Amino acid sequence: MNLIKTRPLISTLVGLGLLIGSLTLPTVFAQDNSDGRYRPEGRTFARNAANLFDDRLFEARTYVAGTDVAEFASATIFYPLTLSFDRPNGVVVMSPGYTGTPESYDWWGPMLASVGIITAIIETNTPEDNLEQRKDALIAGVELIKRENANSTSPINNKIDESQIAIMGHSLGGGASLQAAVELGDDIKAVIPLTPYCCELGQSFEGDLNGVSTPTLIVAAAMDTIAPPETHSRLLYDAINPSTDKVYLEFAEGAHSLPTNQGSNLQAQGTYVYAFLKANFTGDSKYADFINGEGEEQFSSYETN
Q1: Is 187 tagged catalytic?
Q2: Structural domains in the chain, sorted by start
Q3: Hey, which of 84, 156, 176, 190 has its CA 20 to 30 A from 183?
Q4: Is 224 an active-site residue?
Q5: Based on the number of CB atoms within 10 Å of its own CB, is 153 exposed (0-12), middle (13-18) or buried (19 or more)?
Q6: 120 Cβ partners below 8 Å, 6+ apart?
Q7: 165 strand-pairing partners
Q8: pTM score of the predicted model
Q9: Does residue 74 contact residue 144 with C-beta atoms inside 8 Å?
């Protein structure tokens, strides 16, 4: 049975990193070679999340791959600069929303890569690619990541733990991520739709998502007028098999663009997404305890099962 919780204030948890000094665990020191290709806020959010969980912080690097893939135009890959003896990393593949580009979401790359999660943000063949095309792009993105892991000339060669792969998407990409999760099954460990649009543009959601067996975190915005939660995010959450681990996180404020560079509550979004990924990648209870904890006052709804 689903557990619906009214969450008291613990927003100070996410900001706790601001009060904590330097990390006690080792940090890799290197010059940032991004040349301004991503927004610096992600690095700050990562530092706060790392402090909160007492995790290691990495320098982030980025490169472009997948220009020869039929299902999408390219993928911008953000990765942590690790040492030769470090363990392989988990990875998340992300699809933009309708008319979106990787540049619209590039705070996510340094945010997640700086705390050790490789992040591949897909550029669709056209900004107007439909839900089905975005679903296929996410599946192809997972395959690209595996090829990069096996490619001796790739910066992430042998850097990926292929048992720790997740997918994520915004808007139409979020709806596509759930459809891709049905096909990918046990090949992925988590799926994260961000203010998802339920279906093909202009259509209403029909059927169910009983085929989604992957742990799912849906991030919604109560003030979303493009994909209102009652006909999109909430409807999708309820349609997922009740036996599947799932979390519904709805911000009281924020619009459909919540997960983009121009969105709001980015620190909280990044921290909860990171914790959800790590909980399902590693099974470490500190992340699961955070996800199953008291939540934050800015959430209008927070539900887990």
Answers
A1: no
A2: 16-304 (3.40.50.1820)
A3: 156
A4: yes
A5: exposed
A6: 65, 66, 75, 76, 77, 78, 91, 92, 93, 94, 141, 144, 145
A7: 91
A8: 0.88
A9: no
Residues 136, 170, 213, 256: which is the catalytic one?
256
CA dist., res. 131 & res. 179, Å (int): 9
How confident is the prediction for the chain on average, in pLDDT? 88
Tokens, residue 103? 């540049």
Residues 6+ apart with CB under 8 A from 190: 92, 166, 167, 214, 215, 216, 217, 276, 277, 280, 281
Cα angle: 60, vertex 247, 273; to 5 degrees: 10
Residue of 55, 106, 129, 224 marked catalytic: 224
User: Does residue 16 carry a pLDDT above 90?
Assistant: no
Given 95, 104, 154, 171, which residue is catalytic? 171
What is the rounded distance in angstroms from the CA atom of residue 56 to the CA atom of residue 110?
A: 14
State the CB neighbour count (10 A cutoff) for residue 202. 5
How far is 114 from 57, CA to CA, in rounded Å? 6
The mean pLDDT value for 59-69 works out to 96
Give the DSSP letter of residue 53: H
